[in-house]
C-alpha cells in the first residue's frame, strides 16, 4: 500500500484546515489556529482499493520558502483552495499554481480548484462562473465548490485528486500518454473524468440529489445541494440555468 501525499494550498482563512479536518475526522472546527501547519493521515477505499493518504494542511502562503518547495516536491496531488467570499484568495491561487507547476516541472500535476464557503451565499463575491473560467484557463482543472461547514463536496475533492494521481501512475506504467487508450475505463478501475489536457465541458449537476454522481464526474461543478432555505435554492437554480446557456 502506497502513501499518497496531498497538499492543501491557498490563502489564509479560506478554510484549508476546516476542509482537511472535516475530511479526516468528520468534524467542523470553527476556530483553528491559522498558523498551524500539520499533516494528517487517512486510509480510504476508492474503487475497492485502499489508499493511505497523507494530507498536508499548509499555512502562511504569503512567502515562498524552501520548506514550501520541499513539500510541493514531495506532494503528489494538490488542492488549490479559495473562498467564494474573498476575491484576493482566488487571485493568489494563480501564483501558487504556477509555483506548483514550476517545482513539479510538469503541466500535468494532479490538482483540483476548490471554491470553499459556498454556504455563505450572502457574502459571496465570486460566482460559480468565475470558478469555471479559472478552471478553463488552467486546462479544465476539475472545479468544485465546497462547504467545510456543511461537509459538502469535501470527500469529493480529495477523491478527485487521488483518482488523478492513480491515472497518472497508470499512464506512466504504460507506454506513455496513449496507454489508457488501450484500456477501457472499467479495466483501469477508473471512472473519473479526464484531467487537465483532456477537456470535458463543465455541466452543472442536473440532479442535485444524486450525490454519488460527483465521484464519477470530477470536473463537474457541484453547487451545494443542501439548501438551507428556499432563497438559496432559488439562487442556485438561477445559477444552474445560467451555466447551462
Ligand atoms: N461558513 C463557512 N465558514 C468556513 C468554512 N470553512 C472555513 N470557514 C471559516 O473560516 C475560518 C478559517 O478557516 P480555516 O480552515 O482556519 O482557514 P485556513 O487558514 O485556510 O486553514 C474558520 O474559522 C471558519 O470560521 C465553510 O465552509 N463555511
Ligand atoms: Mg489553517
From TrEMBL:
Protein family according to the UniProt entry: Belongs to the small GTPase superfamily. Ras family.
GO process annotations (BP): regulation of establishment of cell polarity; signal transduction
Keywords for the protein's UniProt record, in alphabetical order: Cell membrane, GTP-binding, Hydrolase, Lipoprotein, Membrane, Methylation, Nucleotide-binding, Prenylation
UniProt-listed PANTHER family: RAS, DI-RAS, AND RHEB FAMILY MEMBERS OF SMALL GTPASE SUPERFAMILY (PTHR24070)
Compartments in which it is found: Cell membrane
Highest taxon of the lineage: Eukaryota
PROSITE patterns: RAB, RAS, RHO
Keyword Lipoprotein among UniProt keywords: yes
Protein name, as recorded: Ras-related protein RSR1
Compositionally biased intervals (Basic residues): 233-245
Polar residues bias locations: 203-216
Chief subcellular location: membrane
Catalytic activity: GTP + H2O = GDP + phosphate + H(+)
Region (Disordered) location: 173-245
Gene Ontology molecular function: any one: GTP binding
Enzyme Commission number, as recorded: 3.6.5.2
Top EC class, one word: hydrolase
